[in-house]
Amino acid sequence: MGLIKASAQIVNEHGTMANLRKAWLAADDLGADAIFNNDHFFVTVGAKEGMNFEAWSVLAAMAEATERAQVGCLVTGNSYRNPNLLADMARTIDHVSDGRFIIGIGSGWKEEDYVEYGYEWGTPGSRLRDLDRDMPLIRDRLTKLDPPPVNGTIPILIGGAGEKVTLRIVAEHADIWHMNGDLETAKHKSSVLEEWTRKVGRDGSTIERSIGVNATTFANADEYVALGFTHFTVVSVGPDWDLGFFREVLAWRDERNRAGGQ
Questions:
Q1: Residue 146: which residues within 8 A CB-CB, separation 6 or more?
Q2: For the chain, what is the radius of gyration of the CA atoms?
Q3: Phi, then psi, of 106 in degrees rounded to 5
C-alpha cells in the first residue's frame, strides 16, 4: 500500500473567480495531493441557484495558477464533450500543468445539464454505454497527439460504484477509482471491483482507491485505509471555500505517512 493522499474538491460554484483562485492557491500551499473541481452547468451544492463556471476552462486556469498539486475534475460528464476532443484538451492542460493532470470522468447524471444545454438525456444505461464506448477512444487519442502528454500518458480516474457496468469499466480502464459512501458500502463496492478485476485479468492493486469524506465518514478513516482506500477527498464550497476541515485531513495524512515510514 502506498502513501496516503489528501485532496480538495474546490467546486466552481457560488463564488467569484478571484476567490476561487485564492482557494486553489491556499490548497496548493497547504500540500494538497490533488485539487479537483466539478463539471456541471448549474450549481449542485448548497443553494439551488448561484454563480457557476465551466469546468474545463477552470481546469486550465487551475493548472496555470498552481505549482505542486495534481489537478483534475471530479468528475467530467462524459456526454458533454467529444472523446477525442476531451483527450486533446486533457493533453493540453497536462502541458500547462507540467504533467500534473488527472482525467477524472463519469457517465453523467444531472438531467438539468443535459436538457438546458441540448444534450440527449437518455437513460443511466445509455450513458454508461457511451462511457464504455468512449474510454478506449480517449486512451487511443492520447497515444496519437503531438506532443504527447508530459509523462507519456495521463492517469484516468473514474467515479461511480454501479456494480454491473461502472465497476467493470473501472477495472478495465481506471488508474484511480473514486466513490462516496459509508464504510460498509465502501467495503462491499471494493469487493465487487476486485471481482471485476479478476474477470478482466487485471491486478486490482494497480487501481488506486479514492473516497470522498466528510466529518462523519472521516471518523472511520483508518478503517477505510484497512479496506485499501488511500486517497481521501474533501469538498469545499464557495463563496469562501473554507479549508478548515481539509487541514484536519492533511494533518492525519501526514501523521499516517510518518508512522508508515518508521
A1: none
A2: 18
A3: -150, 180
